[in-house]
Specification:
With 176 residues, the chain is mainly α. Helix content is 77%, strand content 0%. Bound molecules: magnesium ion.
Amino acid sequence: MFDPKVETLLNKQVIAEMYSANLYLSMSAWFREKSLDGYAQWFYVQYKEEMDHALIFYNFILNAGGKVKLGQVDAPPHDFDGTKAILKKSLEHEQLVTSLIYNINEAALSVKDYKTVQFLDWLIREQVEEEDNASTNLERFELFGSDSLGLLSLDEEMGSRRYSQTAQVAVLENDE
Ligand code: MG
């Protein structure tokens, strides 16, 4: 059972993570159009991870006796002002997501909902990694991305990223 405010925020977060997924898939498409297939791969993996995050929240709501209420996911942008603008936007987006998760944590603490506080622990740590990845991508682009050879090398490096299902999703799916 949940406090209604916490339950609403958790449901909003499912939608926010789906929006993140679509945002990164849209960025991935932009990179593919520009033949930056390594960046496209990196953002495609990011899209898959965001869908995992959505499912992690979804599973938690259900496992803890709440009601899942899916809602409309806003359309992501499809036109971007270049690679640097995308990298900057993805960092800002992760900072926003961190603040949303902190808000849920504060709401949960205010009603002594410790199961939600404990659940959010992993996601708060995950956000440290997400922000770190996004700022590293931006910094490396600023350092090396200004000439075509540097960009080629960065694109190759970004393309080495592979998706593996977040352990958290597998654990929760096995609990069903
Ligand atoms: Mg996420």
